[in-house]
Design brief:
CATH topology: Trna Endonuclease, Chain: A, domain 1
Distance between the termini: 27 Å
Shape: flat
Structural class: alpha+beta
Strand order of the largest sheet: 1-2-3-5-6
CATH architecture: 3-Layer(aba) Sandwich
Length: 134
Amino acid sequence: MDTEQLATSAVIQRLSYCDGLVPFINAGTTEPSWDGHVYVYPIGSDKKADLIRVPVQVKGTKRAIENDAASFSVSAEVSDLRNYLNDGGAIYFVVVICDDRSESIFYKSLLPFDLQRILKDAGAHKTIDAKKIA
C-alpha cells in the first residue's frame, strides 16, 4: 500500500468537489517543504487576478480500523514550519487510511501566528510532534 499516494489522492479528490478550489498536490516529494498548493477562487470567478495560492502539506498514516478518537502520530520538521511561516502559512493535512480502505482527512490551518507559537515552543529541536501543532 502506497500511503503517500493514497493520502494525496484522497485530499485531491475531496477538494475537487468544492467549487472554487483547484488542488495542485504531488504524491512524490518534489518540493523541499510542501506537497503542493490549492488555488482558491472566489465563487463565480475564474480570473487569475482573483485567485489565492495556499501551500499545503499532506501526511498519510495507516491504521487497522477507524475509531471515534482521532489520534495518530506524525511529526513535522522545524525547518518546514519555518518555511511555512516565510510563505505566509500553510494547510497541514493528515489522512488516516484504514485496512478496510476507508479514509479520514484531518487538517490544521497553520497561520503565521500559530507558526510563531509552535516555533517558539520547539526551541532547539529539529522536529516537533504533531500534537503540539494541533
